[in-house]
Amino acid sequence: MEAKVEARDGIYVVSLAGQLDFESADALRVRCRQIFTDKKVIFNLEALNFVGSSGLTPFLDLIKDMKTNLGKNVKICAAQKDFVRLFETGDLAQIEVYESEEKAHNAFIFAQFMTEAEKRADIKKERSHCCRICSPHLPAESRHGGHRLGKSR
Length: 153
Fold this sequence. Notes:
Helix content: 40-55%
Oligomer: single chain
Largest sheet: 5 strands, mixed
């Protein structure tokens, strides 16, 4: 098996090609655990033409491990139909599988954009109140009485 790694926009794409057997899957598992501890990773399985049953276990263990440690920072793309079924069951059901590398990449970018937009919205919401006492999260009787409009109590 051949594994090629490329980085784009802070997202690492691991493109696998050839046959995935025990030796290659285990070596991949060890390297990925060393390299991708806190990274966004896409596994592109488009050129993977054979997965031996002995190679399947270490690869699935790697995906589970990364999913547990990285959360939503692991995605799969371009997997063959039989392989996709494995990700639709059990512990792997939470792994996001995309039909193309571009769609997986865009999902990371969109999620990052939404996170940044949510942070900006929270900051804007915080700034819309003169002080923490006027926050709409507090009961009305706990807030100042209209001092934002220049009124005094």
